[in-house]
Amino acid sequence: MRKRSLLLLNLILVAGTALGIRALTGSGSPLPKQTNDLLRDGDIVFQKTGGEQGRAVQLATNSPWTHVGILFRDGDRWMVYEAVGPVCRTPLDEWVARGTDGHWVAKRWVDAEKMDTGALRKKLMAAGKRFNGLPYDLEFRWGDERIYCSELVWKMYAEGPGVELCHPKPMRDHALGSPTVQEVMRKRYGAGPPLDEPMIAPSALFDCPLLRTVAEY
Description:
By secondary structure, the protein is an alpha+beta fold. Helices cover about 40% and strands about 20% of the residues.
């Protein structure tokens, strides 16, 4: 009965998240030309998102960053490949509009210039293909049946160009003591949170020394 109730709760939370995203994105606005010129395939973009989960992630990781995706150029438009329920491509201007304050940062693998851009794009897209359409993982598990945003980025780099951007660390190593975090964990896991589950937070990728900032707005 408890597992059934938790599954129903997760479905409701996913539906609510999806509805909120649709309401916030709209058509977006064109990006400045200088922004387009700064970016390249494979860049990793970070933003802040609102809601209960966004606040819990900020508190648990001591970081403002709550969401992350990978950029790919599609014709004359940049798209963000992201795990947001389901894994999909979102135009960058719409992705930016979804953030809580419009603030976002693009980072690049420090050795990206040593690899042909087309080759890096091909490797990342091939690695990400198997995740396309997967549902969002509200329980932040490390398996591949569902996936969350920073896990998607980490696995695409690890399986594509073979770069481990940072080391997963167990859930228990995050700051789990605040009432907000505790309430989210209670909703997601009941009385048995998987404290030894390996996790990758957006903040871990943001602080990775293998990434350098190329744009910030």
